[in-house]
Structure formats: C-alpha cells, structure tokens
Amino acid sequence: MAIKSDNLVTVKHRISAEARAGANSHRGGVLWFTGLPGSGKSTLAIETEHKLFELGRQVYVLDGDNVRQGLSSDLGFSPEDRTENIRRIGEVASLFADAGFIVITAFISPYREDRDIARKAAGDLFHEIYIDADIETCERRDPKGHWALARAGKIPEYTGVSAPYEEPEKAEYTVDTAQQSIDESVIKMIEYIDQNLVA
Amino acid sequence: MAIKSDNLVTVKHRISAEARAGANSHRGGVLWFTGLPGSGKSTLAIETEHKLFELGRQVYVLDGDNVRQGLSSDLGFSPEDRTENIRRIGEVASLFADAGFIVITAFISPYREDRDIARKAAGDLFHEIYIDADIETCERRDPKGHWALARAGKIPEYTGVSAPYEEPEKAEYTVDTAQQSIDESVIKMIEYIDQNLVA
Lengths: 199, 199
What we know:
- Two copies of one chain form a homodimer.
- Chain A has a single domain, classed as Rossmann fold, CATH 3.40.50.300.
- Helix content of chain A is about 45%, strand content about 15%.
- Chain A contains eight helices and five strands; from the N terminus they run αβαβααβαβααβα.
- In chain A, strands 2-3-1-4-5 form a five-stranded parallel sheet, with helices on both faces.
- The radius of gyration of chain A is 19 Å and the shape is globular.
- Chains A and B meet through helix 1, helix 2, strand 2 and helix 4 of A and helix 1, helix 2, strand 2 and helix 4 of B.
C-alpha cells in the first residue's frame, strides 16, 4: 500500500467550476451585451442584475461607470484604446465567470474582432447577447443627449454616426429592445440564463 | 400628494453592498497579500480559499497564474510594467470586493507606493496582509528554484536579490510564515476574516 502521507508538500489546486456551481446552484458565465448607444444595454443589464439577485444568483454588472474610471482610466476613445479597453473587460469578465459569477458586460463594443477577443478569453463561458434596436429608435431615445451632440459634430467617433457598428454574426442570443419593453426584455434574458446557466 | 408614478423612467441603481452582504452572510473585501518570493503567499492564498469555500464564503484568488497570461499579458517586468500590473490588479480586486467577494491577491507587490494605489482603489474594503518570512527562510525554501537562479545572475531584477522589497508600514495584519506552519497560518487568516468581514 502506498503511503500517501509520504508527500507532505501542499498541492496547490483551485476550486473547481463544478464545486462553485454546486454551491451557487448555477454556473458562471459572461453575458456580453453589445449594441448601439441608446439600445438599452445598461438599463437591461442593471434590471436583469436585480432580477437575478432576487432569484439568489451571484451576479455583477461591468459597465462604463465602474470600468472607465478605474481599470481603464488610462485609456481614451481612439480605436486602439477602445480595443485595449474591450480586451481588458473581456479578461476581467472571464475571471468573474471563473469565480462562478454571472457577469453582464454593457459596452457598445462595436467591432467584431474585439468581441471575438473577449470571447476567446472566456471560452465556453461566453455568451454574446445582441441588444438589437435600430438607429432610428436609439436616436429617438437619446437618453444622454449624445446622439444629438454627435449629429452636431460635437462628439467625434460616435458609434452609429461617425464610427461604425458591426452587428454580431454569431450572437448566442438577440434581444429586440425596439419592439419589446425593458420588462419583457428582462424576462427573456432570465429565461435564457435559466436555460443556459442554471439547468 | 406627489404622484410617484409620474416619473416612469427606469431609475438605474446597483445592488447595494448591504444587500450583497445579507445574501452572502459576509461582506466583500480585498485581502492584499504582499511578501518576498517564497514567503508562502500563493500557497496560503489557495489554502485559505479552500477553507473559506468550505465555510460557504464567496471567495476568489487572483495570482500570477490567472492574471499574467490574461489581463496583464501585455506587460513585462520593468518597474513601469510592474506598477501598471499592480494598478490593474488593484482595480480588478476592487470590482470583486464590490461584487461581494472576499478576493485574495497573491503578488509580491514590493513597492509601498504601488500597494497604496491598490489600497486607494478599494477604499475601506482593503486589507494589506504582510506575509512575513525573512530572506534566509524564503531562499532556503526556494519552491520554484528562482532564488538560486537569481543569485546566479540568471533572473534580472529579482525581488530580495537584485530588486528591493519595501516592507509594509501599515499592514492591517501580519502572518509569520517563517515560524508558523501553513495550517496554522490559514487558521489565523480565517480568524482575521471572521472578525473583519463576517462579524
């Protein structure tokens, strides 16, 4: 019989995804919201977070409010800086998912290539969610008045006006916020999460 | 009487720290381990994580294994890059603590100024934990053989050999891993966490 105690060196091992899922009653995952400014990403993210929290899930939202002034405070809005911003968020979201969280990211993330880098960071845990509203709808809402400023030429490189938005070609899920209310959209998101991270 | 429903715009609000603490039965916090290479930071972090997980805490370890190949993959080991690496980890740890996690970071983080930046990011949720073992002890252990390589001049800017380590002057807690076993040190850490994040 082998003497197991012969090896007294502590073996380093991390908590497995299965163990975390068992404790939380759901798996970790990245819900990567992408869409035009004004499409409802942030609102839907925060509302979905509340509903998930009520349901006892471990959930967190990464958005401009908690990333741009901290982790990405050294970055501006040039194409290179936008790419690096999205890369970092992809890595951080991947860490949260690894920790067992349902993490919702709410960033325009207009470039397919950048989103694919985020997808690669999180692997199987990545869910690209297209928050789909047409330009006319987003511009009519204009919750922050940014569309109007961009049309007036006062915000450079504004997605949808003077910078491109590349629609997802392989989103795991699409939420139509032009036709649906926020409440209806939240219900759809919860259904999607139940099916993909809880079942 | 004011008609509250007059304002139908959805008010964005995040889950409060109190609500998360209520759900998890503990508060979020950053346990920032600092110490010489070989002092036991990583081992103690992983062992403490296991014990906390068994106790039902939400806990996660950030260390070189999950940060250097991802979030900080663009950074090397120059003083500037080390500083930026620690800055990013401080920001990510702050996000985890905000999400209600007990997050343990295991990095040498040799400079006081860098650690103070991490402290600032997390505010009241920051706990600097000095993993205290003298150079002789760390060098004798040399778990990865790096001390020997550094003494032979084969690793440049190695903390403790050819780069400085600035001991904490205001650590919230010190763990003496030269005199204590890992098991004893884990017990001390759990006690500290119980007193500061659970009570």
